[in-house]
């Protein structure tokens, strides 16, 4: 029941294909949502405007183009994507990098906010903006207009961008996934234009194309009749429409109307089979794909059929999960799902089956087991009880979405409008979809669903492929054998038995606990109560969502209090115990009993704390608290869960040894945290020796002192109504009267200067991590200074390594703050590059840092940081997750609850002098690390 609102919203906002209501073949056509304005200008440009004030004072502006890599000529390979890059390198009104600088000064973040992407048949530009600044808002429409028609495409800028595009391909690719894809794509995309038009393009062409080809692509395809402007947010329709007409109305087409062709992928009459291997791939994965021509959804009958397909997907998924949860599954993981082919290209759907075997020797057994489940569903169908649970979940999802319809974030609507323009998919209102689900779901019978799955499997359009390690090549099947495993028949096969449990999760009646004390927390609009057992509860009602309640409970201790002898058992406790179920019920039974409920809950044990977090709504909050009580007082251990965990962990350990990035990350962790047993990953031997009963005992021990715990509830609830429930369930938690804290387990932070070079991997790709690490005195001002240092580094390192050196694509700046057991900070700079350039780019990065230290923080850079902070702060103040974290941290670290009211004052107090002093302090620490991963062929 996790993320139910989001799942339902996805169902509503991503259903395919209709423009407006009309009668067709005596079937009702799906109606267009009347709350979005859709219109066009005389030049053919389409626009969508939707007023939505969640969040307040924000709007999302998008420019969408019906052209991508499929529209390139042979000489233009990669230039659709290259053109997208050039949008940020100079336009008529914003030459060079002025666009990014201007937006950053207004609090817009490059990458996180301002961004773009290119696909086979589309190019999309994204620009979120505040709407309380009319000059900035109008400039946003001017920026979109410039992208649409006024890119400068200067020779010098094009030449500089070549290296950046090549580095993007290196960063995203040059790994095992890319190598396997290059072997598989000729099969998956055979005889289609898609195979020759991968959006990133061909490296040789990126290096050598004539700049005139780029301009030709831009002038040919960036036409108003192929473009749409999408505006969603806290802006009046008339205002948005006037800006669109002002900045796009005068644009004229540069040629006669030239519409993109539709491309597809041919059918294959016979099965295609492919086996691919790689030395860095450690899993054995079999995929079976049945291609189908997609059918546009235009009528209510089509919509109902789509819901039925989703229901079958859900029931197949539930059966697979049940097999895994029961233990001793013949596979590590598996899935069966109907959806878009390769993300929805070529007008195709597909029924996709994927099986992850335990190892190469058990691949046959794994494949047979999953195909047997498919055959079982085809032969015997589904049970009424299975469909009832799925129906309950669907109804809960849509009802939750309907309840939140005035609180849906603006960005959630955008993809619906993009797909309407690009793919002619429908725009359905939440009211209509809610009504449709509640009316039609009860008309669907299990027999209706049983007929669907038989349509998905066919002798035609089948593709089978196996991905495996090169080291297992000698024991892998040949293509014909693999095909036989997939398509073999099953003679003896029984129908699925649905293990349905009746009764209540909690049978005992709990007494009502009394309240020891209570007080009002006016500074945050909350109330604090202390129950009879000593458990502290903070209640903050909000109206940010109509029916969301979030909570977390926490206590100091964690695995730091585990005896070293049973530490391995303690470290796995929060993996195997919650997954085992509660009381007398296993995890599968619990999931079935919670069908139709909005409940998400998860106990956790970290190094220095333990707790439980979850989410619910007003209707289900009592059962959520009941489950909280059961997880903390009646946990159980399931041997099959432990066996499955061991099996998966051992496979992942093996995978890490041959994955270059995983090995490198282990090196980074050791440098940062040392060799403490409390933070080192378990070895296979340690896991084998771990006693699961000790894990259960440790889990119980960590949660048997309620007086040690603090719970925080944030959301739309009535304090008077929720308090008795808290008294009943949290007040019944046991308390031994012992107050505990964490123990310093000797995690050795980085000391001195460290340089390490690791040689592993096949590709010409170096990965670099630079780390600055030290103790610091925790305060709000110092924290803000660290955050400012991070943001300033992001800008300076990006401009130096990407724009000036053209040696990287997207360097990453990380900031980690730790308060327990001591206050530490870690600033990191990470990037990938050509192996031959690693040393020079490291030198360039350090030189740039030296310049910042010497010159100090400029007022311009500090103001950019402050603008971003203030804009994010505005959003945080109306976010339940933010308040949950804020209150939790305040109690956990004994911080002043009133500090939020001093936020702007504290931010203003960070002057350039203070910021410069702190930046110098943080970046001149003696504790620094330079870590480099090189390909193994460079090992001396």
From TrEMBL:
Q: Which Gene3D superfamilies match?
A: Metalloenzyme, LuxS/M16 peptidase-like (3.30.830.10)
Report the SUPFAM superfamilies cross-referenced here.
LuxS/MPP-like metallohydrolase
**Record's protein name:** Zinc protease
Name the family. Answer: Belongs to the peptidase M16 family.
The Peptidase M16 N-terminal domain is annotated at 50-176
Say if the entry is tagged with keyword Cell cycle. no
The UniProt record lists the keyword Cytoplasm: no
- Keywords (A to Z) from UniProt: Hydrolase, Metalloprotease, Protease, Signal, Zinc
Organism per entry: Leeuwenhoekiella marinoflava
- Signal peptide residues are 1-21
Give one GO biological process term: proteolysis
Gene Ontology MF term list = metal ion binding; metallopeptidase activity
The Peptidase M16 C-terminal domain covers 212-393, 692-868
């Amino acid at each position: 029941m996790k993320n139910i609102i989001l799942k339902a919203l996805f169902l509503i906002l991503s259903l395919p294909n209709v423009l407006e209501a009309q009668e067709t073949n005596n079937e009702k056509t799906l109606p267009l949502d009347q709350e979005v304005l859709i219109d066009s200008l005389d030049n053919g440009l389409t626009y969508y405007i939707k007023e939505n004030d969640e969040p307040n004072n924000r709007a999302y502006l998008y420019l969408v183009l019906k052209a991508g890599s499929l529209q390139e000529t042979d000489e233009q390979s990669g230039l659709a994507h290259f053109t997208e890059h050039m949008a940020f390198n100079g336009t008529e009104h914003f030459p060079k990098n002025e666009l990014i600088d201007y937006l950053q000064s207004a609090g817009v973040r490059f990458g996180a906010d301002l961004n773009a992407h290119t696909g086979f048949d589309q190019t999309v530009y994204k620009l979120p903006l505040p709407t309380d600044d009319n000059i900035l808002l109008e400039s946003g429409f001017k920026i979109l207009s410039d992208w649409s028609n006024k890119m400068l495409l200067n020779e010098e800028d094009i030449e500089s961008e070549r290296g950046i595009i090549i580095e993007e391909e290196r960063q995203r690719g040059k790994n095992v996934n890319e190598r396997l894809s290059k072997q598989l794509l000729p099969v998956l995309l055979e005889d289609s234009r898609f195979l020759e038009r991968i959006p990133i393009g061909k490296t040789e062409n990126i290096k050598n194309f004539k700049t005139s080809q780029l301009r030709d692509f831009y002038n040919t395809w960036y036409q108003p009749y192929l473009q749409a402007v999408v505006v969603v947010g806290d802006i009046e329709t008339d205002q948005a429409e006037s800006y669109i007409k002002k900045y796009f109305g005068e644009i004229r087409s540069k040629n006669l109307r030239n519409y993109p062709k539709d491309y597809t992928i041919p059918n294959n009459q016979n099965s295609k089979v492919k086996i691919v291997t790689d030395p860095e791939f450690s899993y054995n994965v079999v995929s079976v794909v049945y291609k189908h021509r997609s059918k546009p959804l235009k009528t209510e009958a089509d919509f109902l059929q789509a819901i039925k397909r989703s229901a079958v997907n859900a029931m197949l998924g539930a059966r697979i999960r049940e097999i895994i949860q029961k233990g001793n599954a013949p596979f590590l993981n598996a899935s069966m799902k109907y959806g878009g082919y390769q993300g929805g290209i070529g007008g195709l759907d597909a029924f996709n089956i994927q099986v992850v075997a335990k190892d190469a020797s058990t691949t046959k057994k794994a494949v047979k087991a999953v195909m047997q489940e498919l055959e079982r569903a085809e032969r015997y169908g589904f049970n009424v009880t299975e469909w009832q649970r799925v129906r309950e979940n669907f109804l809960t999802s849509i009802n939750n979405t309907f309840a939140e319809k005035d609180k849906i974030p603006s960005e959630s609507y955008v993809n619906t409008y993009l797909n309407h323009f690009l793919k002619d998919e429908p725009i359905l209102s939440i009211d209509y979809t809610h009504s449709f689900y509640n009316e039609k779901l009860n008309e669907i019978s299990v027999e209706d669903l049983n007929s669907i799955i038989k349509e998905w499997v066919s002798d035609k359009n089948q593709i089978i492929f196996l991905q495996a390690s090169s080291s297992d090549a000698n024991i892998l099947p040949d293509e014909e054998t693999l095909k036989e495993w997939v398509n073999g028949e099953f003679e003896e096969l029984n129908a699925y038995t649905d293990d349905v449990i009746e009764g209540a999760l909690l049978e005992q009646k709990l007494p009502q606990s009394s309240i020891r004390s209570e007080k009002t927390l006016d500074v945050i609009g909350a109330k604090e109560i202390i129950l009879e057992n000593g458990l502290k509860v903070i209640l903050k009602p909000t109206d940010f969502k109509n029916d969301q309640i979030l909570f977390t409970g926490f206590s100091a201790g964690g695995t730091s209090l585990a005896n070293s002898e049973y530490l391995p058992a303690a470290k796995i406790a929060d993996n195997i115990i919650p997954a085992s179920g509660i009381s007398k019920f296993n995890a599968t039974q619990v999931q079935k009993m919670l069908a139709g409920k909005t409940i998400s809950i998860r106990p956790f044990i970290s190094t220095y704390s333990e707790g439980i977090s979850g989410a619910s709504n007003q209707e289900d909050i009592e059962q959520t608290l009941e489950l909280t009580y059961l997880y903390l007082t009646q946990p159980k251990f399931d041997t099959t869960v432990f066996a499955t965990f061991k099996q998966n962990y051992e496979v992942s350990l093996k995978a890490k040894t041959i994955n270059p990035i995983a090995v490198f990350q282990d090196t980074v962790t050791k440098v940062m945290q040392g060799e403490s047993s409390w933070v080192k990953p378990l070895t296979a031997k340690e896991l084998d020796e771990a006693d699961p009963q000790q894990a259960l005992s440790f889990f119980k021990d960590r949660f048997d002192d309620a007086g040690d715990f603090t719970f925080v509830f944030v959301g739309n609830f009535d304090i008077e109504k929720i308090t008795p429930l808290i008294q009943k369930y949290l007040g019944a938690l046991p308390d031994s009267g012992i107050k505990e804290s964490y123990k310093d387990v000797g995690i050795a932070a980085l000391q001195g200067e460290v340089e390490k070079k690791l040689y592993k991997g096949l590709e010409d790709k170096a990965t670099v991590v630079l780390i600055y690490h030290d103790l610091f005195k925790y305060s709000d001002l110092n924290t803000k200074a660290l955050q400012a240092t991070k943001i300033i580094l992001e800008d300076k390192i990006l401009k130096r390594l990407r724009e000036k050196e053209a040696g990287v694509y997207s360097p990453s700046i990380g900031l980690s703050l730790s308060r327990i057991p001591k206050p530490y900070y870690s600033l990191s700079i990470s990037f990938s590059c050509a192996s031959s350039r690693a040393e020079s780019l490291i030198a360039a990065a350090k030189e740039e840092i030296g310049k910042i230290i010497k010159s100090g923080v400029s007022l311009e850079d500090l103001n950019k940081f402050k603008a971003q902070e203030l804009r994010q702060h505005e959003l945080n103040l109306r976010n339940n997750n933010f308040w949950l974290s804020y209150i939790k941290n305040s109690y956990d670290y004994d911080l002043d609850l009133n500090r939020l009211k001093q936020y702007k004052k504290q931010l203003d107090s960070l002057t350039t002098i203070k910021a410069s002093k702190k930046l110098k302090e943080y970046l001149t620490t003696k504790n620094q690390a330079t870590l480099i991963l090189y390909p193994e062929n460079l090992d001396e």
